Amino acid sequence: MGAFLFQALSGLVILAAFHLNRDYISENLCINRFDAIPLCKGSCYLEEQLSEHEQQQQDTTDLKLNGTVLFTITAR
């Protein structure tokens, strides 16, 4: 249950971490930080993090689906 809860809330953790560290992200990690007037203010970094998270979620789901084996035992 804990893993399910972590998986469900991990997107919120990414958003919270972004908003708490937005100034640092926009100054140091933003792709557009070298522009004269950066308009995204770190949202490019957030989009990248969320897309990586979504990809990891899909990969995990694929692994779970591929790893499931169903079988039955019949008594004679």
Give an overview of the whole structure:
This protein has 76 residues and is mainly alpha-helical. The two termini are 37 Å apart. It has helices at residues 2-20, 22-29, 43-66. Helix content is 67%, strand content 0%. The chain has one domain.
Q: How many DSSP-defined strands?
A: 0
- Low-confidence region ranges: none
- Give the termini distance in whole angstroms: 37 Å
Q: What helical percentage do the residues reach?
A: 55-70%
Number of helical runs?
Answer: 3
- Name the overall outline: elongated
Percent in strands: under 5%
Largest sheet, in brief, is: none
Mean pLDDT across the residues is 80
| Count of discrete domains | 1
* Structural class computed from helices and strand pairing: mainly alpha
H/E element order = HHH
Q: C-alpha Rg, in Å?
A: 20 Å
Which SSEs are present, and which pair or pack?
Layout: H1 2-20, H2 22-29, H3 43-66
Helix pairs in contact: 1-3
Descriptive tags:
76 residues, mainly alpha, 3 helices
What would a concise description of this structure say?
The protein is mainly α and 76 residues long. It contains 3 helices and no strands. The protein has one domain (2-66).
